[in-house]
Amino acid sequence: MRVIDALRPLRPAFVSVTRTGGKPREATIELVARIRGLGLEGAAHITAIEATRDDISGVVDLLAARGIENMVALRGDRPADPAFRAPADGFRYAADLIRFVRERARGRLCLVGAGHPEGHPECRDLDLSVEHLRTKVEAGLDAVITQLFYDNADYFAFAERARRAGIGVPLIAGIMPITSVPQIERITQLSGNAIPADLRAALERVRDDDEGCLEVGVEYATRQCAELLRAGVPGIHFYTLNKSPATRAIFEHLRKQGLVD
Which of 91, 3, 98, 109 is nearest to 48 (CA)? Predict the structure, then answer.
């Protein structure tokens, strides 16, 4: 909540809350309800890889009871346990979840899904990845937030593929400011996202310098965001990882350039 308080002056269009650490889905929903009580719009991340249809029905009902109108609907990462088996009446793909929630909520929810400019970790075929996205949009998505990326060319090419495929919903650019070299190396290793050579070289010079890394991350993300905004992206979603300094610094740099209010 301290992070929320620090970011409130930036007047974000919405704040999304992920489900982490094995916490129950209800914890995410209750936190979004608290955020909405502060006058900010909120969206609850709901994953379904291990959920039954009754589980998700309960989630939809709880969202309605708390007055929450936005869900980020994700399949979720497969558990590392090789013995894991999804419930027989569960959701194999995100599109299955989206279709079920759209029907269950009867239009009460704005549904946001994930897009992958560099391809999904389980599908590196970029054209096929966009076809999967089109299936999710047809199932009921209202908007898409992209996975993190560090080369804007990847986003622009993704957006072009999506438009050619007939996807007309907003494609919001997901930006993750780098604040720790080991952290971003772990994240990109898991997600399969690339770090451009110039950025990697700059990060290597500040590997053991936290302040220097923050400076490099803010400067790079500011340039990314400025180019995206000038190109007319429908929005930028900052992956804050529950921290505020980098996002606040980027926002101030963009404000000085007249790109945000």
Answer: 91
